[in-house]
Amino acid sequence: MERAVLDRAVDVPDPVTVRMGTVEELRRLGVRVPPPQYPLVWDPGDTVRLRRRGDLAARAAILGVLLATHDGLPRRQAMRWLRDARLLERVTPREWRFIAGGVGDAALIDLERDALHGLAWLLGLVDDLDPRLPRSPYLAGLLPDPRTPGEEYPAWRATVPRDGRDPVEAAVLLDLYYCLDWAYQEADRRREDPPGAVPPVAIGARRWALEWAVVLTGRYHEDPAGWEDVDLSV
């Protein structure tokens, strides 16, 4: 199962100031602003860090294999690649059931393409996570390809940029996507069109990646959740 091994923590900026910036950005995007009592993501005095780059890369590679299986990669080939990459222990039970036996909701698996886009941004493989724009069409080409003989996980890991995202930058973006998820879901509830080409489910999937990768520590934060345990209900 997944291990939560984390990078060095730094202080987070004032949450109220960050939320004011988020609200300004929401208005610029033309989406609904959450009510004043909508919870802040962190409290003054908390710290933030990102999952270690090895953990981010492993999760991205696993999602890449999961989605490749969804798109027709032979299951034995997928399992062999994960075994050779020594990633089997990081695959969740739900993912393994789909990869090994095709058991599970293929539509839910397909939604994780935007979660993968979020991980790619955290790894520095893509330049932005603009909520107005769909995910990069070149995303699959940025990941190791299990179909290509000799394309091994360690060799791909060596190509991942060493300079990761600043944890504060990632936390600020998490606050934006936290509020965007509410705004898009509220618009969907009211049967209003989304403001851009990205549907509400994609916004939620990107938030999923950020919620998992951005680890906040403080009085009111619990231990980091596993990939399948990220709570997007609030």
TrEMBL record:
InterPro entries for the chain: DUF4272
Pfam families associated with the record: DUF4272 (PF14094)
Protein name in UniProt: DUF4272 domain-containing protein
Organism: Actinocatenispora rupis
